[in-house]
């Protein structure tokens, strides 16, 4: 049954269920556990959006690992990636010589993940890979692979399971997609924590 939500005059409908997310995370974790056997990777979550995905993923990880966080900000329409990325919180861990796995909620324009890649590569990690729960299809600015992808989705705006709409709705247990955009003037926000 399609569940509908009306938020700020926009219509959203259920898209990826809790069960589908749980199952997919288990599959990704099996691959990561295998690929990193005998290693101690550092999972780097990108705040705010990835906090729920990271916490569920990490509990399916059975190898030794560490965790740290980046926090990025963007400025612009609450439903469109701004094209401008800033580092609000840097890492606390030593990246040099370590196996790094960056954990993202969603790769949309690819700008954030490209910025993160450049930032981490400066510190000379032993290896660097990327996990994203969602990947929007046909990203023009991405010239490197996302190694572990939960779901490839059309370029619709999605919310829930960590993903926000103007900072709200991160607490929804599953993922919803925008189906009908209201006619209200777009809300411009400073997005402190993508
Ligand atoms: P990118 O830099 O355009 O790849 O995306 C940066 C960030 O924008 C992601 O990490 C998300 O936090 C946010 N974002 C992108 N698309 C969506 C969406 O559909 N819903 C909610 N947040 C999004
Ligand atoms: Mg966001």
Describe, in plain words, how this protein is organized in 3D.
This protein is of the alpha/beta class. It has one domain (4-73, 82-191): Rossmann fold. The chain contains three helices and eleven strands; from the N terminus they run E-E-H-E-H-E-E-E-H-E-E-E-E-E. The protein has helices at 18-35, 51-58, 111-121, and strands at residues 4-7, 10-16, 42-47, 66-77, 86-89, 99-107, 127-136, 148-153, 158-159, 175-180, 188-191. Helix 3 (111-121) links the parallel strand 6 and strand 7. Helix 1 (18-35) crosses helix 2. Magnesium ion binds at residues 49, 164, 191, 194.
Draw up the topology in text:
Layout: E1 4-7, E2 10-16, H1 18-35, E3 42-47, H2 51-58, E4 66-77, E5 86-89, E6 99-107, H3 111-121, E7 127-136, E8 148-153, E9 158-159, E10 175-180, E11 188-191
Parallel strand pairs: 3-4, 3-6, 6-7, 7-8
Antiparallel strand pairs: 1-2, 2-10, 4-5, 4-11, 9-10
The structure holds inosinic acid and magnesium ion.
Residues 49, 164, 191, 194 line the site of magnesium ion (MG).
